[in-house]
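User: Hi! I have a protein structure encoded as tokens and I'd like to know what sequence might fold into it. I'm fairly new to this, so please keep things simple.
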């Protein structure tokens, strides 16, 4: 680990006498509970007399619903309710941006696994058996599964009567959103190129694969409302979608965060929240729902699979002349966040490079494939896979070192993005590449020992497929760019309520936000900021709920920036109010109260020279100070629908990787030996958490490089592998050493100079692994994930 700090605002040192503040490595307060199995997740919740909810899901991907017979299910002992769309109390559709997703399908089903009916029973097995007794008659329809079938002139429409604002700006009703970006003149610039490379790339559908399934508990309230305890990423977004479907005002839907077992974007959309609430209100009893793993694969959105078509040119001295690309993202049956993913994919499609002449088109499709939406990296992952493969092709064609070629074309602070937006904070792309390249290489043939081959260090591992025969090493590099925060004119804000008071003779601060803790580390960050700004040791983090203003989503790498900014803002106001109380009480005793710069440090009011004037306890006595404030980042604007120009993003994050792999070229087995990362984090608020986030993001990128993919039958649009038996995830045996080298180059526009951390490493890890496998095998490998048959030619 290394760090370089430049330009951090001076107020980072505020509260330096208080342990556990900004910049210190802090252990998670829930860490021990989680690793010992004692942490209460949403699936662990219990309520007396609660019922169990179960959905029945479609067995076909596209069909008219001819009839639904619930009589046998209703006749079962222990069954309290069986509902279809006809029984819903109010709005039948929901959606984050546009309400096109049915709570329960009506008229037709549009994807495999869509919920059609709902059961509440006194035992989960009774609920499952009752759901299985519901008889549904379908009239199957042709399926739309790719760009050709979606955009044909006579294509069946996935949604016949679109009412969203994107519909007027797309060339076909099965295109959710289209975002072109035109800058310069790519056709003219291409004439200056000495070499031109083209590539067609395929990116598979990745699942978030969080270990905690969708689950929650809905409790009917005496006022006719509902109290909902759920694992989610965005309480207030859920609230705005749930209340209309229940026919209730928002104040009667009270939401509280339950323990979250991972998210990665998959909990940003609604899953079981409305279903459980409808059952609770219908039966008058608490209802718990927990998806099993099979159902979970249908119960949330996935990463958009993509087809990407790229062309780059370069002069013989290695300067990129132009770029043309088309990116086709499959959004599946419903909109979810596809328009925003399209915006990200298009605006970040050039990568972290200076290219003045570009011609870009990105589209998102409606199909009958599973719905896709937010996942870590959000459109930038797919683009990075393609443009980094292009960089290697260009370097090879020019006979240049792939790292030096990238450095020659790397953006820096002041670079103008293809959207016309200047990069107005540090962009150390060349330095990140230098750092990963300069790392010592892991030793060759690590499997060898005096006692023979250690197969655990070889491709194939304990399957004992090789003792080193046919094993070839490869090294690959990649670097990526990811936006941070919500973009394109979205009103991105967060709220924090801060209270300081004396409890049992000690000053205690309470931090109350609606920010979802999904494993990213906000539970430590929030307390660290409060300690830094208020100078108190004891900080209580109140449960996240909708009784405080929105904190926005825990996604887009935004929470430390946004909710951290809100906590900092509110703390600063609280601090001034505490000082005002002190001046009122003690101002006549010391002139410093009137004319000195005063701070709160170590539980005391001190001057900037370090002189203590009073304890916070003495200042407050029986008084409490409470403030609730909102924080917003700089405004952004929508991209022009014709040219793509506009200041669409608030911040960029950068990460680079070097992958070292060993490949059994005879069997097509891959062992990733090392996956080193260098990343600019702006300010490491919790260095330990920073390392964990970078290593976690890197591992998810590794997964989609060599094993993770939801397989959808192109003829039926049915999911073929909805289980962790057939959908493979990296285990500890697959995860390599991940050395991390981070820079701290402050963003002057962000609180403490922070930069979003969690998403950027997911981008460049995948193409780095692919580049290393290419180096080992000499194969082109334009599809992810790479499977053994791709390496052996046996597919």
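Assistant: Happy to help. Inverse folding works backwards from shape to sequence: for each of the 795 positions I chose a residue that suits the local structure. Here it is:
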């Amino acid at each position: 680990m290394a760090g370089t700090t430049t330009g951090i605002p001076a107020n980072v040192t505020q509260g330096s006498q208080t342990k556990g503040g900004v910049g210190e490595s802090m252990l998670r307060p829930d860490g021990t509970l989680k690793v010992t199995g004692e942490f209460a997740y949403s699936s662990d919740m219990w309520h007396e007399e609660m019922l169990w909810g179960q959905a029945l899901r479609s067995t076909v991907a596209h069909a008219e619903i001819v009839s639904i017979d619930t009589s046998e299910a209703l006749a079962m002992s222990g069954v309290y309710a069986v509902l279809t769309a006809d029984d819903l109390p109010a709005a039948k559709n929901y959606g984050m941006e546009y309400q096109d997703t049915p709570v329960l399908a009506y008229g037709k089903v549009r994807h495999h696994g869509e919920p059609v009916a709902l059961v509440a029973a006194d035992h989960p097995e009774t609920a499952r058996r009752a759901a299985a007794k519901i008889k549904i008659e379908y009239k199957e329809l042709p399926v739309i599964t790719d760009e050709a079938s979606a955009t044909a002139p006579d294509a069946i429409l996935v949604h016949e009567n679109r009412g969203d604002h994107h519909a007027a700006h797309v060339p076909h009703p099965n295109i959710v959103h289209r975002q072109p970006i035109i800058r310069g003149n790519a056709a003219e610039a291409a004439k200056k190129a000495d070499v031109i490379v083209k590539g067609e790339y395929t990116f598979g559908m990745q699942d978030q694969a969080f270990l905690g399934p969708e689950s929650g508990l809905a409790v009917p309230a005496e006022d006719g409302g509902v109290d909902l305890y759920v694992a989610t990423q965005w309480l207030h977004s859920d609230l705005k979608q749930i209340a209309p479907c229940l026919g209730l005002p928002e104040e009667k839907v009270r939401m509280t965060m339950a323990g979250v077992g991972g998210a990665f974007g998959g909990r940003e959309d609604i899953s079981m929240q409305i279903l459980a609430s409808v059952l609770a209100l219908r039966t008058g009893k608490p209802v718990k729902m927990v998806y099993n793993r099979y159902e979970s694969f249908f119960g949330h959105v996935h990463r958009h699979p993509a087809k990407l078509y790229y062309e780059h040119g370069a002069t013989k001295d290695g300067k990129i002349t132009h770029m043309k690309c088309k990116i086709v993202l499959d959004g599946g049956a419903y909109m979810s966040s596809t328009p925003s993913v399209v915006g990200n994919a298009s605006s970040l499609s050039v990568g972290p490079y200076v290219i003045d002449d570009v011609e870009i088109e990105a589209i998102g499709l409606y199909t009958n494939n599973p719905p896709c939406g937010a996942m870590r990296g959000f459109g930038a992952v797919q683009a990075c896979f393609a443009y980094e493969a292009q960089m290697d092709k260009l370097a090879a064609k020019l006979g240049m070192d792939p790292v030096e070629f990238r450095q020659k074309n790397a953006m820096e602070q002041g670079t103008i993005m293809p959207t016309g937006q200047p990069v107005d904070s540090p962009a150390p792309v060349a330095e990140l590449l230098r750092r990963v390249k300069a790392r010592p290489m892991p030793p060759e043939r690590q499997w060898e020992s005096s006692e023979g081959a250690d197969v655990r260090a070889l491709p194939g591992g304990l399957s004992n497929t090789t003792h080193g025969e046919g094993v070839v090493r490869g090294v690959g590099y990649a670097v990526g760019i990811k936006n941070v925060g919500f973009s394109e004119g979205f009103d991105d804000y967060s709220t924090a309520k801060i209270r300081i008071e004396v409890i049992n003779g000690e000053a205690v601060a309470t931090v109350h936000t609606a920010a979802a803790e999904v494993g990213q580390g906000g539970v430590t960050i929030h307390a660290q900021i409060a300690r830094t700004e208020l100078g108190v040791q004891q900080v209580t983090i109140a449960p996240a709920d909708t009784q405080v203003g929105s904190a926005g989503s825990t996604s887009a790498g935004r929470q430390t920036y946004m909710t951290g900014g809100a906590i900092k803002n509110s703390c600063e106001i609280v601090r001034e109010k505490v000082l005002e109380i002190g001046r009122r009480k003690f101002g006549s005793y010391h002139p410093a109260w009137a004319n000195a710069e005063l701070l709160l440090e170590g539980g005391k009011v001190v001057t900037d020279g370090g002189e203590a004037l009073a304890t916070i306890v003495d200042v407050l006595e029986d008084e409490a100070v409470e403030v609730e404030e909102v924080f917003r980042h700089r405004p952004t604007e929508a991209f022009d629908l014709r040219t793509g120009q506009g200041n669409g993003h608030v911040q960029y994050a950068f990460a680079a990787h070097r992958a070292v792999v060993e490949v059994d070229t005879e069997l097509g087995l891959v062992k990733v030996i090392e996956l080193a990362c260098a990343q600019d984090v702006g300010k490491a608020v919790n260095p330990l958490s920073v390392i964990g986030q970078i290593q976690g993001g890197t591992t998810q990128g590794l997964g989609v490089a060599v094993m993770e993919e939801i397989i959808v039958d192109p003829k039926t649009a049915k999911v073929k592998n909805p289980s962790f038996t057939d959908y493979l995830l990296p285990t500890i045996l697959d995860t390599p050493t991940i050395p991390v080298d981070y820079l701290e180059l402050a963003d002057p526009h962000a609180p403490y100079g922070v930069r979003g951390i969690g998403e950027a490493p997911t981008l460049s890890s995948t193409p780095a692994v692919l580049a290393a496998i290419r180096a080992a095998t000499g194969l082109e490998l334009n599809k992810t994930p790479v499977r053994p048959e791709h390496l052996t030619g046996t597919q």
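A useful reference point when you look it over: Residues 559-586 form the longest helix (28 residues). Feel free to ask if any position seems puzzling.
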